[in-house]
């Protein structure tokens, strides 16, 4: 008898006592297993237990709340809920409760995946009901609009749907856009906003197709980012190169993608054994091999929107005179 009481009156069952008081019916099955003399009482109890109100077929709309209820003839009988054969547990989105003879299962926000055959079982009795879920008819009320902006600006994309609390996603060229330090995504009623480069600056590489997808519908827009004029951030400086050594001229531009051309006086310099042109990140370099007196001249790095010039001086002995070459120079920076 003590073992029967211990098997029924567990710590978990004691915690449920306030909402679900102990009944004699809970001891019938354990007693019947312990002593055959109680089997007749168990059969009598089963015959007495009946489903007063069973499950019915229910149809609900997606994202709505849905309640399934069963009423038994005896109060506080433990039961099990299943959907398509899988047992259900109480959780924030699925609340299972018992109040006397009434057993309830409440789905707080129905999804398409909640549809199926529901079953409530208690002491050998069961009742069935099917839940059908209607998909929401979502459509775009206000489409995304193309945005043409300049580099270093903040960009906003706004889309409006006909439903609230829509779980939408943003993409740029099929790559998911997620909230971050420079990206803000906001839902306010039926309006969804995506802010690119919030607190930072939109760059040319952000350009492309922007897409907002809400379940079965999508809206598209094109983001075009115009590059700002290239600027020379660090101009060329006067350079003194040693005779028969390698000379280097270097400047810094405002963006890594900037294209430049090098000139000696007004003649364009192309890559060769004599001249090596290097573009490394925002640095533009010109190497002059085997410097001689004829290399002494004015050199220009032209980035199209901006340019910078300087003089190259050659110092060292010449084959003709054996003397030293050294002259003053000036630095010129100009902006077109």
From TrEMBL:
**Which domain of life, per UniProt?**
Eukaryota
Compartment list: Cytoplasm; Nucleus
What the record says about family reads: Belongs to the protein kinase superfamily. CAMK Ser/Thr protein kinase family.
* Keyword Phosphoprotein in record: yes
One GO cellular component term of this record is: cytoplasm
Q: What's this protein's name?
A: (spotted green pufferfish) hypothetical protein
A Pfam family for this UniProt protein? Answer: I-set
Keywords assigned: Cytoplasm, Disulfide bond, Immunoglobulin domain, Nucleus, Phosphoprotein, Repeat
Q: Which residue intervals define the domain Ig-like in the entry?
A: 249-303
The yes or no answer to whether the keyword Nucleus is present is yes
**Source organism lineage?**
Eukaryota, Metazoa, Chordata, Craniata, Vertebrata
Primary site of residence: cytoplasm
Q: Which SMART domains match?
A: IG
């Amino acid at each position: 008898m003590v073992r029967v009481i211990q098997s029924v009156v567990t710590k978990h069952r004691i915690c449920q006592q306030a909402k679900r008081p102990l009944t004699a019916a809970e001891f019938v099955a354990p007693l019947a297993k312990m002593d055959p003399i109680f089997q007749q009482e168990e059969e009598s109890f089963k015959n007495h237990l009946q489903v007063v109100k069973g499950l019915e077929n229910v149809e609900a709309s997606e994202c709505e709340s849905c309640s399934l209820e069963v009423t038994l003839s005896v109060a506080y009988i433990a039961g099990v809920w299943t959907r398509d054969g899988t047992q259900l547990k109480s959780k924030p989105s699925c609340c299972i409760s018992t109040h006397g003879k009434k057993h309830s299962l409440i789905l707080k926000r129905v999804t398409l995946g909640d549809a199926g055959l529901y079953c409530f079982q208690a002491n050998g009795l069961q009742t069935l009901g099917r839940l059908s879920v209607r998909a929401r008819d979502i459509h775009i009320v206000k489409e995304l609009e193309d945005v043409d902006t300049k580099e270093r600006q903040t960009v906003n994309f706004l889309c409006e749907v006909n439903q609230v609390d829509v779980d939408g996603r943003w993409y740029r060229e099929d790559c998911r856009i997620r909230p971050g330090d420079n990206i803000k995504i906001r839902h306010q009623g039926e309006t969804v906003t995506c802010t690119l480069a919030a607190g930072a600056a939109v760059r040319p590489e952000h350009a492309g197709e922007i897409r907002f997808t809400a379940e079965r519908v999508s809206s598209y827009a094109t983001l075009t980012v115009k590059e700002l004029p290239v600027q020379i951030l660090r101009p060329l400086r006067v350079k003194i190169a040693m005779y028969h050594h390698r000379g280097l001229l270097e400047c810094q531009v405002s963006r890594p993608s900037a294209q430049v051309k090098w000139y000696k006086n007004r003649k364009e310099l192309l890559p060769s054994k004599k001249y090596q042109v290097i573009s490394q990140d925002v640095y533009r370099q010109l190497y002059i091999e085997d410097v001689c007196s004829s290399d002494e001249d004015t050199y220009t790095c032209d980035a199209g929107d901006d340019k910078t010039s300087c003089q190259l001086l050659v110092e060292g002995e010449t084959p003709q005179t054996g003397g030293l070459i050294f002259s003053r120079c000036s630095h010129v920076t100009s902006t077109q």
